[in-house]
Amino acid sequence: MSAKTLEEEALFIIPTRYRHKHSKLLSYPVGAELLSRAFVGVPQLKSFNCDFTAKDPHLDKARDDWRVMMVGYQRSARCFSYPEYFETKGFYDPRWDIKIYAVLSDHRAAIKKALVEIGLPTMVRPWLIENASLDGQIGETKITLHYDISTKTLYSKVTDNMVPERA
Fold first, then answer.
1. Which residues are CB-contacts of 102 (< 8 A; sequence separation ≥ 6)?
2. Which residues of 52-73 are buried (b: 16+ CB within 10 A; e: fewer)?
3. Are strands 95-101 and 65-75 parallel, antiparallel or unpaired?
4. Residue 145 in contact with residue 117, Cβ under 8 Å?
5. Rounded to two decimals, what is the model's pTM?
6. Which among 31, 36, 30 has a CA at the least distance from the CA of 14?
7. pLDDT tens string 128-145
8. Domain limits, the chain
């Protein structure tokens, strides 16, 4: 990758598709600018859309384990019984999405630190590079990062529902 391309990517900010409002007890651990810097040089960088959601059923104060981030690829198979507007609205187009989940504000700093130091560079970035060739394939795959408050550890779960390519 040329120096000019890296310089252009360093200025690029991943677009935010939506950002839910949340209570003062919650906050987002990272923003689009930080994510953009963390993913400079990743082939999918300019394909991402980022969503910030406070409506996570896994956000439960009684639990110690919280989902904090999801990065995924999806492309739906064409279905001839679906309305034509699905095609015109891009329903079948390949998509790379990032979803950031609101966390309790008391734990935001620790979760952000774990994401910046461990999650983004050693979990998500290698997964993105490994899956860079998926564009156009049908199916869904994602990496979800969880933070365990009791042990103060960040861990990942990968879900792969890609349709095998035909020979």
1. 20, 22, 26, 27, 28, 52, 53, 54, 56, 59
2. bbbebeebeeeeeebbbbbbbb
3. antiparallel
4. no
5. 0.84
6. 36
7. 999 999 877 888 999 999
8. 3-162
Q: β-pairing, 103-104 with 139-148?
A: unpaired
Could you give the strand order of the β-sheet that contains 48-53, starting from the edge strand earlier in sequence? 16-19, 48-53, 95-101, 65-75, 139-148, 153-162
Alpha-carbon dihedral angle through residues 111, 59, 51, 163, given to the nearest 10 degrees: 100
- Sorted by sequence, the CB contacts under 8 Å of residue 156 that are 6+ apart come out as 119, 123, 124, 127, 143, 144, 145, 146
Task: Give residue for tokens 């082939």.
Answer: 43
**Where does the pLDDT of residue 53 fall: very low under 50, low under 70, confident under 90, or very high at 90 and above?**
very high
Question: Per-residue confidence at 90, pLDDT binned at 50, 70, 90?
Answer: low
